[in-house]
Amino acid sequence: MDTTIILGEILAFNDDSVEVTCLLNESPQVLSVRRFSILPFKKTDMLGVGVIIEIKTIIMAGKMEINFSKADQTLSEKFKLIDRFSSFEGTPFSK
User: Fold this and answer.
1) pTM of the model
2) In this structure, what are the phi and psi dihedrals at residue 57, rounded to the nearest 5 degrees?
């Protein structure tokens, strides 16, 4: 059995699906947008733009399970994009 836990931030949702920015790696920061069925989110307090969720994936022989839960909302700072070009300010590359 292999278990992976990543954080996600809900970007948008409609009647069928939820779009989530997933934090695949913190350093260096790697973000990826994924789409999930809305069914696991219905009638929960997780369904809202900007809500931070935990996505737990469990892989076993012959099956895969994905569980969603609301995470600590102060973790939203992890989803702010890092400015990778700020170190070039004032150099010929910034013109």
Assistant:
1) 0.82
2) -110, 125
